[in-house]
Amino acid sequence: MTERGQARPQSAEPRSEPRPGERWRAEFPYHWDGDDLVSRRELLHFAVYTSGALFSCTTLLALLGLLQRPAPAEAKLVARVDEVVEGQAFYFRYPDPDDQAVLLHLPGGRFVAYSQKCTHLSCSVYYQPEPGRLFCPCHEGVFDPESGNAVAGPPPRRLPRVLLRREGELLYAVGQVP
Ligand code: FES
């Protein structure tokens, strides 16, 4: 019955039900004729060209990175050997005037130097002859003076090491390694 109370006319033909395997075609009709077919060969070409382009870009970026690598730092006089008493520290600036560094005259006579910038949140690290450690007061980070390794507290890695060269009685900083 319709809203007006009239009976709907019965269709003469019975409604055709899709077969079980064909039901999705009826629910999701897809017009194959309107599709642009992409052959496997074209898809392969696209993949090869795209990979080649990505490889070329990566190589180019790597070469640019090599070309822009900073020039090795110049040797810079740090101190005379007799200025730093054994077991004591000498603070200096390296490689730039804003970069603080510390030279240690370790017990036994060896000289080592590190950046003073803590590897946690960049506070300044200081040498404490007793108990013989590099200490960061911000969060109580501790570094081993012999190696610069982080040994306690939150610092995640060692202090950057300043490379030293001794010429007679003079000590020069000649580079820095992370
Ligand atoms: S900044 Fe040095 S321990 Fe946090």
Topology:
Layout (H helix, E strand, L loop, with lengths): L22 H5 L12 H28 L8 E5 L8 E5 L6 E6 L5 E5 L10 E3 L4 E4 L4 E3 L6 E3 L8 E7 L2 E8 L1
This protein binds FE2/S2 (inorganic) cluster.
Please, could you describe this protein's structure?
The protein has two helices and ten strands, in the order ααββββββββββ. It has 178 residues and is an alpha+beta fold. It has two domains: 20-67, no CATH class; 76-177, Rieske Iron-sulfur Protein, CATH 2.102.10. The longest helix has 28 residues, at 40-67. 16% of the residues are buried. FE2/S2 (inorganic) cluster (FES) binds at residues 118, 120-121, 123, 136, 138-139, 141, 153-155. The site of FE2/S2 (inorganic) cluster has 11 residues, from loops.
CATH topology of the largest domain, anyone? Rieske Iron-sulfur Protein
Give the count of helical stretches.
2
- The CATH fourth-level homologous superfamily of the largest domain: Rieske [2Fe-2S] iron-sulphur domain
Order of helices and strands: HHEEEEEEEEEE
> How helix-rich are the residues, as a percent range?
10-25%
CATH architecture assignment of the largest domain: 3-layer Sandwich
